[in-house]
Amino acid sequence: MTQQSIATSDKLDASVLKVAGVVVLGAIMSILDVTVVTVALPTFQREFNASYAEVAWTMTAYTLALATVIPLSGWAADRFGTKRLYMIAIALFTIGSGLCANADTIGQLIGYRVLQGLGGGMLLPLGMTIMTRAAGPHRIGRLMAVLGIPMLLGPIGGPILGGWLIDVASWHWIFLINLPIGALALVYAALALPKDNPEPSESFDFLGMLMLSPGLALFLYGVSTLPETGTFADAEVWVPMLVGGVLLVAFVLYSFRTRHPLLDLRLFGNRSLTVAALTMFVFIIAFMGAGLLFPSYFLQIRGETTLAAGLLMAPQGIGAMVTMPVAGMLADRVPVGRTVPFALALIAVGFFTFTQVDPQTSYVLLCGSLFVMGLGMGGTMMPIMTSALKTLKAHEVARGSTLVNILQQIGGSVGAAMMSVILTSELNGSRPIPGATDPSGEPVTEAGLAIAVQQQPELAQQFPVDPSLIQRGLDFAASSFATTFWVAFALVLVTFVPVAFLPRRREPSHLLDGQQEGQPKAPVIIH
Fold first, then answer.
1. C-alpha dihedral sign at 61, 67, 72, 74
2. Is residue 403 a contact partner of residue 277, using CB atoms and an 8 Å limit?
3. Rounded CA separation 197/39 (Å)
4. pTM of the shown model
5. Regarding predicted confidence, which is higher, 5 or 449?
6. pLDDT band for position 368 (50/70/90)?
7. Which helix (H) or strand (E) holds 484?
């Protein structure tokens, strides 16, 4: 089958399913790796003697790398060919995984996660392009159903798999497991993917990329350094924030002047896209940022194993699995302005429980709240994306899809950095224990000791301490989590403002206007 062949039957034949198998395998690797690391953050803190704000960069760096390569993948696919580039992406992701498993410092792990993200960020957009070309635009719905499997299972399976691997082996295996899967995916791709002919397209905005990615990284690095220095006046905080801020402002100004910008900010002239993008951005900061902290609460405050923490997170994924297919069907029939507010209300109701957490909060209440949040999550993201893209002209869809995908990754990066900084700052306020220091010579706080004892109960026998001191530290740590969740909850409430402006009447779709036969548009993918 050639790149140009498009089947006329609605049924997915064997040749299309063979191609879909490659893409699903790549999607499983990429999506699982986003969720599998969430339960490992406290382990990284202990293994590398790092603060939560530092280890959160293993997520922040990964999502920033994803944001970098999303626009690059379309240009590179035209220049080098989708098959060749897809195999390069798998190889990059697999090599990055092997390097992550062998990291000796938190700095090395963060650097290797960037390499992993550069590969992982290309897998989904390239995979969708490959599948759409193989099957034709009229079977996109069926293709999305196939790709929806790893997307639905990732949030459930990732934390459980990560927890199990850390418990039975070590944290290294959450990365090493990608090596055999990556090797299999490379061989499978070489055999199953059809050859294609590279056709160099419009020039790529490398200058824009050199402003946006370093600008974001520097700004967030400055913010993340704040808990360690304790003041904005420290050069390690304000210098990277200033340089990053200047680069970001320069990027925005430059984007309106160049012909083919990295991000087409002119699309914000479309009211529907602007409202949907703003809604998604604020929501992602709150939900993804706080989402990193849920497993950490179970591990550090409740003393659960990593596997148990992964299992306790499963209700959220199950909730999303229930509502996502329903939301997908309703998106074409009911205006999103009438459905998303109800989904967001579910998220807010579930989220409120976490603002009240203490060391004894009922697991039934917490798991029930996660399930309700999952129900809301499944009815929020896809409808908002659909609303954003439906009103765009056909020639704008690719740029609009890139814009909303990158905004999502940026929101995730900002959320991870922001929530980890707030939690670290809160925990730093705990009282130090007189005369007690850690291996690096830093004073040990009551909250720090309580968290260490919860994760390693044997410490209580090795270093007998007053039980009331442990309880006091645990109460303070739980209160620090609750305070951080209050900030995220407030952001969820703020999201209701742009949601109020989402379309409440059916709007005509311009998605197919002017679309040329043989030029199918790959649908947007939420990473």
1. positive
2. yes
3. 42
4. 0.83
5. 449
6. very high
7. helix 467-499
